[in-house]
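Write out this protein's structure.
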Amino acid sequence: MGQSELAGRLKTDIITAMKAKDKDRLGVLRMMQAAVKQVEVDERRDLDDADVVKILSSYARKVKDQIKSYGEGGRDDLCAAAETEFKIVSEFLPAEMSQEDLEKIVLTAVEESGAAGPQDMGKVMKLVLPKTAGRADGGKVSAMVKKALMG
């Protein structure tokens, strides 16, 4: 089994950043590559694009949390650096799913699962999450499913 296309793109971008002597971008790209490699080594397998998106989405979430923390702490210098890091990570993630598309997926999943109320949230989430992975915030998806099951 070969390497994922996304991991290959990451490697290419690292080489480009090295040649351009772009230290900031290079540092972020190397951190992303390290996160991917760590999972590859831990699980002893080659990762596909879906796995890489999952890893990078998790990484992006951590950076988003850092941005929020730094902003609340009044650390504008660190906040700006984290925002730059987030922009670089976002380049490797699929485009954010629109509200309308997300609603369609949630409503379809509610119908398919035969969910009758909030107690069936797990059934619905099991159908929705694979379709939205890396393209919609988990909290946003959860809130939308909850709303659909309440009303």
